[in-house]
Amino acid sequence: MKTSQFKIEGVHIIRLETGEEIIRTLQEHVQNSNIKGASISGLGSVNQVKLALYDGKQYNTFSVKGKLELSTAVGNVAWLNETPVIHLHVVVSDIEGRCWAGHLVKGNVSFTAEFVLYEFSEDLKRERDANTGLNLLTV
Ligand SMILES: [Zn+2]
Fold this sequence. Notes:
The protein is mostly beta strands. Helices cover 8% and strands 63% of the residues. The protein has a single domain, classed as CATH 3.30.1330.80. The termini are close together. 26% of the residues are buried. Zinc ion binds at residues 87, 89, 103.
């Protein structure tokens, strides 16, 4: 285990609107606000998501479309070189409460989505890890 300790620099309340893509919109906000790193949580509604699962070699993706709740979203923001990585895992559910979950690749907001971003006082970065093939947090 490796750990780092940061302070919370500020809290951003973010409301996404109809048609906005979650990852891209959050990425733009992080870039424009010079956010060094963050913890994110959120909820809302989506009409399309692309989710992924890492099998140890690659990300396998699948898509879900329809009237969906974004029942929960949790994750973090860290920088991989010059790019802010929005790492979010989500659970989406349909009208009967059936759920799909995974690593969010893409999500299209249908009505609204509400995120709270806790901005860190220090830089949080990612680095390619040869063992896992993943871009891991450098803590
Ligand atoms: Zn993930």
